[in-house]
Amino acid sequence: MEEKKLFQSGPLADRMRPQTLEDFFGQQELVGENSFLRKAILDDQVPSMILWGPPGSGKTTLAAVIANVTNADFIKISAVTSGIKELRKTISRAQENQWQKKKTILFVDEIHRWNKAQQDALLPHVEQGLMTLIGATTENPSFEVNSALVSRSRVFVLNKLETPDLEKIIEKALSDKEKGLGKEKIEITPEIIKEVALLANGDARMALNTLEAATNQSKTITRELLKQIIQKSHLYYDKGGEEHYNIISALHKSMRGGDADASVYWLARMIEGGEQPTYIARRLLRFASEDVGLADNFALVLANNVFDACYKLGYPECSVHLAQLVVYLAKAPKSVSSYFAYNKAKKDVEEFGNLPVPMHIRNAPTKLMEKLGYGKGYKYTPVEDSSGQEYLPEKIKNRKYL
To answer: 166-188 pLDDT, tens per residue?
Structure first.
């Protein structure tokens, strides 16, 4: 009875967590009819897996569904609050299960939070089949999860939920009389439901939290009430994670392709997501030489000035400077000749090592150096014809980089 009361007073997002695949909205490519994962879950033949996706996309919910339908001993731990000690207890429990011919499934939430030593400690037990691992992460497993663990697991990618999926989740919460808000007679229009879904930006937990916060204020949900609760749209932009690199890549490629509109959009995503203005300006400064280069030398001047403005002003003032630069760089002609020339020269440096400087272009600041032939035969370009003069080492004479 006490557990039931505690559950009913818990957050709406937890109360509405699905227990079956039929109640799981979204991710149809992953768990839809005839999918590999759906069949594996229903057949209780779940393989070790890494669930990778943004917050609120259903990773923990999918694990909860598996826990509900499996005959295995399902153990859930969080990488944030647990370590080697908790893992050892889990291993002992799994060994006891093995003796009793019972399977063990270990769910590690936010597995990327475990360090290398902790992940290494888990690896042999997954390899030996002592337990089935289900790891959930918002970070790219290629970078944040032990490569051996990844190679022994199926990686399933969960995308952020679509607006229609979020609308269904909200509607279910509003109609469910046992776990949701069905008994409270909430007044809300389809348009407002859609707005809550849009504000959630693909995150089911955020959608339900927003709905719950609104219903705690009033039983009539209006646009004005939503504005009070959410002052600003929540954007998923992890400054230290993969999305950070995805968006800066999108900005670069949009500018490189000459699409100023797309460039400004990706810039806004970075700014509104909380990216440091000097980081953006530094990347644009690089772009001005790497991609625009000799086709428009003023691009580098403007980029340097915008970097200085960002350093001096910060947000919100420097947003317009960054926008001006991004539009300029997107519309500017492009030349990668300097960029490629340097890479070719670098390759020669790596291949041939420290080739000697030709004697005729060496300085001779002392009598001894002059006697040894330093600078001998050098043609001084401003006063004599030096058109045939060679400036490269003998071994790579006549090499062309441009």
So the answer is: 999 999 999 999 999 999 989 99
